[in-house]
């Protein structure tokens, strides 16, 4: 009966979303914006739900109008991420419905995986696992490596929760190998969980090493989202090393950020180990308030895991020492309730993960070996075919390489002949009047010259709107003047200034030539490494790596 009610509620809310979209028209200012722009604006406006809603709705309506299945799914995924807790699963169901209409296994698998992640965040592990297994059925039929490892990561989380630490550790180690160069946050998350696994199997030294590595890698990647989690993990690890004061200090330091993330699970675990540290220091009265906080979270969220059962055992021991029978009876009831929940949940999860995931992995490996044996029957034919294919592929690659090298070299020489790379030319001043007051034009041009001279273009996330405010102008006039006198649209104008600046310092500063693309992007104020690489290639006609290598070879003393 409850399931039927929830299904009807989902349909009603889903129809309400569609009705809202149908009655909504994309504003003219957003009509030609791409999906990346709309997503980034929604992300920037996370603290302003009213304005954010405009970009979320525009994204989804644009995708629906263009019948773009992938972006429709992404549109609902955006709603899943940014909507209130009570609506996340409704949008998740809409996302799955849209994915199923596409018939694309990767989209369907990704949608189920996202719904499972919502359940996991709510610590409803049974429902999370159900969706992970469905996701795995679809994703295993694709060649989408990222999604395959994303499923692997989330299954590893369930294994960690089930206390299959060695199995979880093996999966997380596979994940860091893949995610290291693919996704910084997923890489750091996997490192964090590897540290937790080491702690659980009693290897406290490797746990500390992993936490230190996580903090160092976070700094290297300029990503501090996991900093508090590595400190939290090390605080718990210090408890097991009997360094109780250090444990209290580190966990206490980490908790504000964890609470801000609304991560009640790690908050609860943190309180428990602070309480245990005070208990170990023979300060039970200081421990008790932290044990009670664990109980409050259990009441509010239903969150419990095996090691937290000791929370109730210690509370009961405390009240026994105080001869408080009423309190003892109350917390004995809590302990029995928590134990019952865990017993049911673990039995269900353990049987399903072994039956439907581990067995499938073994069968998949068996099939893979059988396929390899079958292929050996045609080995001679395949070998000759592959050799011929490789021969012509190498010829084609060699031709392209020589052609590209020649083209890059020509562009490099042209670039180096310029006496002043960082010089903005004012073009076609007299090529026709703008329908703008001459004084206004003169004022904006003067500000542009100062803007270029002072290298204000190096500011990150510089937009036409921001520059308009700085110039006390308006976006229409500023974009027209830039286009008229610089013959470039605003984005190209800013990107070219950044690239010209980088080229000028690369020519004179040998130290900068050793920077990574990420560091060069930061130096020039690009918001991402990929945007920098694209802008450099567009401006110069060659990749950054080629330009720098040629600079080192041809002009070592510059």
From TrEMBL:
Transmembrane spans: 381-399
Molecular function GO labels: DNA-binding transcription factor activity; sequence-specific DNA binding
Domain of life: Bacteria
Signal peptide: 1-19
InterPro entries associated with the record: HTH_AraC, TPR-like_helical_dom_sf, TPR_rpt
Domain HTH araC/xylS-type: 458-550
Coiled coil: 441-468
Alphabetically ordered keywords of this record: Coiled coil, Membrane, Signal, Transmembrane, Transmembrane helix
Name the UniProt record assigns to this protein: AraC family transcriptional regulator
Protein source organism: Flavobacterium yafengii
């Amino acid at each position: 009966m409850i399931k039927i009610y929830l299904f009807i509620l989902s349909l009603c809310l889903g129809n309400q979303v569609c009705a809202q979209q149908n009655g909504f028209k994309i504003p003219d200012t957003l009509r030609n914006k791409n999906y990346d722009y709309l997503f980034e604006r929604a992300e920037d406006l996370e603290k302003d739900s009213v304005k954010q809603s405009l970009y979320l709705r525009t994204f989804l309506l644009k995708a629906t109008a263009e019948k773009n299945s992938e972006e429709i799914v992404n549109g609902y995924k955006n709603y899943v991420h940014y909507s209130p807790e009570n609506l996340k699963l409704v949008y998740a169901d809409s996302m799955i419905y849209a994915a199923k209409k596409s018939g694309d296994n990767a989209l369907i698998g990704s949608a189920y995986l996202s719904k499972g992640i919502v359940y996991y965040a709510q610590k409803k592990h049974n429902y999370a696992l159900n969706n992970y297994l469905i996701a795995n059925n679809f994703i295993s039929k694709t060649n989408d490596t990222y999604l395959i490892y994303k499923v692997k990561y989330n299954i590893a989380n369930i294994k960690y929760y089930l206390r299959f630490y060695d199995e979880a550790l093996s999966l997380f180690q596979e994940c860091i190998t893949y995610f290291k160069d693919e996704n910084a946050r997923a890489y750091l998350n996997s490192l964090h969980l590897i540290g937790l696994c080491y702690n659980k199997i009693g290897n406290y030294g490797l746990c500390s090493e992993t936490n230190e590595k996580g903090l160092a890698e976070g700094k290297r990647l300029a990503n501090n989202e996991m900093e508090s989690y590595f400190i939290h993990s090390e605080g718990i690890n210090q408890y097991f090393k009997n360094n109780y004061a250090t444990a209290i200090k580190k966990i206490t330091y980490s908790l504000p950020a964890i609470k801000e993330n609304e991560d009640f699970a790690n908050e609860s675990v943190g309180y428990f180990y602070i309480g245990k540290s005070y208990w170990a220091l023979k300060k039970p009265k200081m421990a008790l308030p932290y044990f009670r906080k664990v109980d409050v979270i259990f009441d509010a969220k239903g969150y419990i895991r095996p090691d937290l059962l000791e929370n109730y055992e210690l509370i009961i021991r405390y009240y026994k020492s105080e001869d408080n029978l009423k309190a003892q009876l109350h917390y004995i009831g809590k302990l029995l309730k928590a134990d019952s929940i865990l017993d049911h949940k673990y039995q269900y999860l353990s049987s399903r993960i072994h039956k439907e995931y581990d067995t499938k992995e073994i069968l998949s490996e068996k099939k893979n070996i059988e396929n390899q044996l079958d292929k050996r029957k045609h080995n001679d034919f395949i070998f000759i075919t592959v050799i011929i294919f490789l021969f012509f592929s190498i010829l084609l690659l060699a031709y392209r390489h020589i052609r590209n090298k020649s083209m890059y070299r020509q562009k490099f020489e042209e670039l180096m002949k310029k006496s002043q790379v960082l010089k903005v030319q004012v073009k076609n001043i007299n090529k026709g009047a703008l329908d703008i007051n001459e004084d206004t034009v003169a004022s904006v041009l003067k500000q542009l010259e100062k803007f270029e001279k002072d290298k204000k273009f190096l500011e990150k996330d510089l937009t036409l709107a921001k520059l308009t405010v700085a110039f006390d102008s308006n976006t229409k006039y500023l974009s027209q003047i830039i286009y008229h006198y610089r013959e470039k649209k605003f984005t190209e104008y800013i990107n070219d200034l950044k690239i010209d600046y980088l080229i000028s310092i690369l020519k004179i500063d040998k130290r900068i030539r050793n920077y990574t693309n990420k560091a060069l992007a930061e130096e020039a104020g690009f918001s991402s490494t990929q945007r920098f690489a694209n802008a450099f290639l567009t401006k110069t006609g060659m990749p950054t790596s080629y330009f720098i290598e040629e600079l080192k070879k041809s002009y070592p003393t510059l």
